[in-house]
Amino acid sequence: MDLDTARQELKEFIPHVENLSDSSIKKMVGRDLPRFKEFKKQGIAVKFGRFTQKENNQIRKNVEEFLSISGLDSAEKLLFTSRYPEDKETINRLKAEHEFCAKISEGIPRPWRLIYYRARKMFDSNNYKGRYTNEEKEQLKKYQAMHGNDWKKISELMSRSNLSVAMKFSEIKSAVNYGPWTKEEIQKLKHAVKEVIRKRVERRSSPSSLERPDWELWVDRETLCQQLPWTEIETKVGSRFWRQCKQKWNTILVKKMSKGQQLDTWIKRCKNRITLIKRLYEMKVEDANEVNWEELCDAVGDVPSAYLQAQFYKLKVSFVPFWQNKTFSEIIDFLFQYKLPELEEKL
């Protein structure tokens, strides 16, 4: 099946399919499209957003059944194979033989990727370690000095998840600014992004093409939107978390790409914020990592997921007092109760 046909068939089930990369489309054709069509025959719609208790139970059942038929002795080996390098070849062979992808998604009308990530979160013992002790913080600083930003290596040494150690190091390494971005910070961010993108272009371009003085004009949109090494960029900026750098860059990118269009008018922005708050509140999500921003794109309109995340960040920083000390659900509740009526009145 060619990519255009695949996108067209998937669009019936994934409204935001145009925003997905070609590689994601290819994977979904094999893993998801046949399942989606089968669910359609049963009158079941594809779901996004927060997983229900019933779905969580189904994931546990699917994992337990796969362990039973494959002979593997733990969900950690199945879902975190890289932690067991000596058994990696055997585990991967068993996954292929017993059709791991099909088995883990059985009975759940969602994209395979989301089911897999949910299973990893549910069965990762390193996700539930609690607060870092002072000793752990010192260990983290020592390991980072030894191994740089090799968070996979550091996570193994500390028995914490990759994301956990990366985020914690961002918090403890330096003073971080939570206020509005200064012109100097924005310039540092732009220079940092420019530097890492130039390195990427140099790695895949011929020497002659880089000799042109206008090489930067030929950086395509896909390169600008790709995942960047945000911890490296954070280091270059010096005064912001990597997540702040990512959100700010996405905001800059959206403004550049939508210049001359009507996306950024006040009325459109206000409507987007209203819809965003309502949809986040309806999801009843307790953790920011469970929000499917791509799904929200379809609910809000023709905007990138990066734009929505940037809008949410602005809302909480600008209008939620002491937001750093609040949980994700508390932030959403506050915006829904106090900011939403104000926006609707202004609109």
Compose a concise summary of this entry.
With 347 residues, the chain is mainly alpha-helical. The protein has helices at residues 3-11, 22-31, 33-41, 53-70, 75-79, 88-97, 100-104, 112-123, 134-147, 151-158, 162-172, 183-204, 207-210, 221-225, 230-237, 242-257, 266-283, 293-300, 305-319, 328-346. The longest helix is centred in the middle third of the chain and has 22 residues, at 183-204.
Task: Record keyword descriptors for this entry.
mainly alpha
Q: How would you explain this protein's 3D organization?
A:
With 347 residues, the protein is an all-alpha fold. It folds into 4 domains: 3-123, no CATH class; 134-173; 183-258; 265-346, no CATH class. Helix content is 65%, strand content 0%. The protein has 20 helices and no strands. It has helices at residues 3-11, 22-31, 33-41, 53-70, 75-79, 88-97, 100-104, 112-123, 134-147, 151-158, 162-172, 183-204, 207-210, 221-225, 230-237, 242-257, 266-283, 293-300, 305-319, 328-346. The radius of gyration is 22 Å and the shape is globular. This is TTF1 factor. One of its GO terms (molecular function) is chromatin binding. Residues 173-253 form the Myb-like domain. InterPro entries: Homeodomain-like_sf, SANT/Myb, TTF1-like.
